[in-house]
Design a protein that fits this description.
Blueprint (H helix, E strand, L loop, with lengths): L15 E8 L7 H13 L1 H7 L2 E7 L4 H4 L12 E4 L1 H4 L25 H10 L4 E6 L1 H12 L4 E5 L15 H22 L2 E6 L6 H10 L3 E3 L7 H13 L5 E6 L11 E6 L5 E3 L2 H13 L3 E5 L11 H19 L5 E6 L2 E6 H6 L6 H4 E2 L4 E2 L7
Parallel strand pairs: 1-2, 1-4, 4-5, 5-12, 6-8, 6-11, 7-8
Antiparallel strand pairs: 2-3, 9-10, 12-13, 14-15
Helix pairs in contact: 1-11, 7-8, 9-10
Length: about 375
């Protein structure tokens, strides 16, 4: 399905190889930076001359949906691809979201397997290579396509930071900044009224956002999916705080956190194309429980998609840049089935299979204080 690279040396002309790029799953800050740097690296004149390969860049709209919907589908009334040029993407790194659009479409959904359509479209659109930017779901699809012979590479993104084999996933740091800024705002109003505020963050299975957002903002209590909490213990900690003279408390809770003996709290019945439940409501649940026992006025706020929105912070712009460049480096080396990754201070790559085989979760033993429901207080062991 994917043709061999041919290089015509006559008159310096070289055949153009097509790279398709798509973003899938929940959007986040940093995606546009990654797209920009895939395009700029692939189309860089000087690099094309030294590599003796010329590329053409094709943006695929709305993630895998752009490769499963038949042309002219009423669900897809606009062109599913666009040719990307360096000039076009010049300023993209400053903007949030994804200018290519995204979706949670799963071509391998067991109830509606459309993977053959994807393979056919890849061939029809003459995509020699594919860069998939996404989390466990999008990269899971990328890995299956790789096993079917597609020349695919991946870039990690998810504000949940739950992909394995990488210390960073695009969007995380911007989301932590949003949590920190919003909690700074809540503090003044919470303090004025002597209230408790429960702040619900995203984080389905992994508590990184709640933990690092809570640590950055100095939250009094942090609750994560990796450790089931006891409401009595939360109340105890709150009363202890008040006895010591605190005027207000901030509790950060990840949407996937749950009390001992219960399952996660869901916003709506049903599952998405990848089999995920729609979580939400643990913040409100907790606020009610706390008020009932302590009689202290308690409010809750769900940060929800605010965490995914807005302009990328400096770190996400830079990481998008490095990941985008590295993804094209993998294509040049014909090192497919890999995801670029950031490990121990270095940009490197790992097999897609490894990135999606298990989730990267908070290590309770070394990163969480199970007594105080907060971040660790010992970092260098004695
Ligand atoms: O990308 C993962 C995530 O951030 C989860 O933490 C959350 O449950 C989900 O996205 C919600 O996404 P959406 O409402 O866009 O489907």
């Amino acid at each position: 399905m994917v043709k061999d690279r041919e290089i015509s040396l006559y008159g310096g002309k070289m055949e153009k190889n097509r790279i398709g790029v798509l973003t899938g799953g929940g959007d986040c800050a940093g995606l546009n930076s990654a797209i920009k740097w895939v395009v700029k690296t692939a189309l860089d004149d000087r690099l094309q001359r030294t590599r003796k390969i010329r590329y053409e860049m094709v943006g695929i709209r709305d993630g895998w949906k752009g490769l499963v919907c038949p042309e002219g589908d009423e669900d897809f009334p606009y062109p599913r691809i666009c040719i990307l040029t360096e000039e076009m993407v010049r300023t993209w790194d400053r903007y949030g979201g994804t200018n290519l659009g995204t979706s949670r479409t799963n071509p391998y959904d067991p109830k509606n397997d459309r993977s053959k359509i994807v393979l056919k479209n890849i061939e029809q659109l003459r995509l020699d290579y594919l860069v998939a930017i996404g989390g466990e779901d999008t990269l899971g699809v990328a890995n299956k396509l790789y096993l079917e012979g597609v020349n695919v590479v991946g870039i990690p993104k998810t504000i949940d930071k739950d992909l394995s084999g990488t210390d960073y996933t695009l969007g995380f740091e911007t989301a932590v900044n949003v949590i920190t800024e919003e909690i700074d705002r809540l503090r003044t109003t919470a303090g004025s009224h002597r209230r408790i505020f429960v702040v619900e963050t995203m984080g389905r299975h992994a508590g990184w956002l709640a933990l690092e957002g809570g640590e950055s903002s100095g939250a009094y209590i942090i609750l994560i999916p990796e450790y089931n909490f006891e409401i009595e213990r939360i109340n105890e900690l709150l009363m202890e705080g008040r006895r010591k003279g605190a005027r207000y408390e901030i509790i950060v809770v990840a949407e996937g956190a749950k009390p001992v003996g219960s399952s996660e709290i869901i916003k709506e019945e049903g599952i998405d194309g990848f089999g995920h439940k729609m979580l939400g409501g643990v913040g409100e649940f907790l606020a009610k429980e706390i008020f009932q026992s302590t009689k202290i006025e308690t409010r809750s706020i769900t940060l929800s998609h605010l965490q995914r929105g807005g302009a990328p912070c400096a770190y996400d712009r830079r990481m998008g840049r490095y990941f985008g460049i590295a993804a094209v480096n993998l294509i040049v080396k014909e090192d497919f089935g890999k995801m670029v990754s950031y490990r121990n201070g270095r940009i490197t790559s790992i097999p897609l299979q490894e990135a999606i085989s298990r989730l990267n979760l908070v290590d309770i033993r070394t990163q969480y204080d199970t007594e105080r429901y907060n971040g660790r207080r010992t970092i260098l062991s004695s």
